[in-house]
Structures are given as structure tokens and as C-alpha cells.
Design a protein that fits this description.
This protein has 208 residues and is α+β, with helices and mostly antiparallel strands. The protein folds into 2 domains: 77 residues, Elongation Factor Tu (Ef-tu), domain 3 (Beta Barrel), CATH 2.40.30; 87 residues, Elongation Factor Tu (Ef-tu), domain 3, CATH 2.40.30.20. The chain is built from 4 helices and 12 strands; from the N terminus they run E-E-E-E-E-H-E-E-E-E-E-E-H-E-H-H. The strands form 2 sheets. It has a 6-stranded antiparallel β-barrel. The protein has a 6-stranded antiparallel beta barrel with strand order 7-8-11-10-9-12.
Length: 208
């Protein structure tokens, strides 16, 4: 489990094609500190397993399913990536609960910079729009962000200078893909309501 607080802006060193999978070598001296074989590290919001490591790099195998359903298939040597180690029990939950399981990819539609922040508009697959609400949480490339505006096929987020400087969203341009993970709590609530035959609207009436 992660919190969507990026620890380090790493870099893809090499990509080895292995037929139905790929092995990524990634540079990240912060996240490899104390790393062990089998540990989990989130790469652009995708939970990957450490295969091998050294002082400032680690390798991870990425299966075809993950390459197809996330933007990791777009990466090449030199690509920058957001890196985060799992949160520790008892530690601070700085963002929100993030599983590292990508629901879909979106595309950066627009960037509007201002003096102190940048508003980024991202496309959203329509089947996920019901989980995204204003002031709710969403994970974009592994970054826990607050939704500013939520539409049927898009959402916007406001990025502070720190986020722009220390994550991939500082340089992602319109047309580039990003990994999206919706708030897992919303999915569980929907599942539970479905099991009881309720909807969000009828649940509100019950509470009244």
C-alpha cells in the first residue's frame, strides 16, 4: 500500500525485452536504500517487485498485461519516473490510500500555468467518471492529487511548485499518457451498495 507521496524522481536506465514481458532497470538511490529482493516499489503509480538492485538502481519485471494497461509501455531509456516505497504501518498517511493498481490511462489535455500553480486537465475514461468527484482524491502517475473539477470525460488538478519540480507532471505535455488509479474506497462503497440493491441516491434517502 502506498500514499501517493512521491519520494524520488527516478530515471529509466534500460529496458530489456523478454518476449511476453520486459525487465526495467531504474535509477533511484533514495528508494533503493535498504531495498531487498521481492520488495515493492511504485513506478509511475504501478506497484512493481524488485528483482535485483544495487546502491542506486533496481530492476523489475513488467508483464504484458501491465505494459498494455498502463503507460509503462511508453517508457524508454532516459524517461523520468515517479518512485515511492510502500508506507509503513504507523507512519503518516500524507496522501490517500493507493494500491499501485492502475485502473486506466488518461491523456494530458491541457496545461494552464499561473503565477503560483499550474492547472492540468486530464482525459478520463467515461466508465470511471462516477468515482471522481470535486475535492476527492485521484492518483495520477502515482501522485496523490485533489480533484478541482470533474466532468464526464475529464478532470482537472492544480499543481503546486513542489509537485511540478519533483514529479513527472512538471514536464508532461498535452498528448502524453498518464496512469490513473481512482480512490479504492469509492469502488468498495459501490460494490457494497450493489450487494444490497442500493444506489448512492437511495443510500442518501435511507440516511435521512
Amino acid at each position: 500500500m502506498f500514499t501517493g507521496i512521491v519520494e524520488e524522481l527516478g530515471e529509466v536506465v534500460a529496458v530489456e525485452e523478454l518476449g511476453d514481458s520486459s525487465r526495467f532497470k531504474l535509477r533511484g538511490p533514495v528508494v533503493t536504500d535498504g531495498a531487498k529482493h521481492g520488495d515493492s516499489i511504485a513506478v509511475n503509480g504501478v506497484c512493481l517487485t524488485v528483482v535485483d538492485f544495487d546502491a542506486d538502481w533496481f530492476t523489475a519485471d513488467v508483464m504484458a498485461e501491465t505494459l498494455e494497461r498502463s503507460s509503462l509501455g511508453d517508457l524508454a531509456p532516459g524517461s523520468r519516473v515517479n518512485l515511492e516505497r510502500p508506507t509503513q504501518i504507523g507512519g503518516r498517511l500524507g496522501g490517500h490510500l493507493v494500491q499501485g493498481h492502475v485502473d486506466a490511462t488518461g491523456t494530458v489535455v491541457d496545461r494552464k500555468p499561473s503565477e503560483n500553480w499550474t492547472v492540468v486537465k486530464v482525459s478520463l475514461p467515461p466508465h470511471l467518471s462516477r468515482y471522481v468527484v470535486e475535492k476527492g482524491s485521484i492518483t495520477v502517475d502515482g501522485i496523490s492529487l485533489t480533484v478541482v473539477d470533474a466532468g464526464d470525460d475529464y478532470f482537472t488538478v492544480s499543481l503546486i511548485p513542489t509537485t511540478l519540480a519533483l514529479t513527472t507532471l512538471g514536464f508532461k505535455q498535452p498528448g502524453e499518457r498518464v496512469n490513473l488509479e481512482i480512490d479504492v474506497i469509492a469502488k468498495y462503497v459501490e460494490r457494497m451498495l450493489g450487494a444490497t440493491g442500493q444506489t448512492a441516491d437511495t443510500a442518501k434517502e435511507t440516511v435521512k
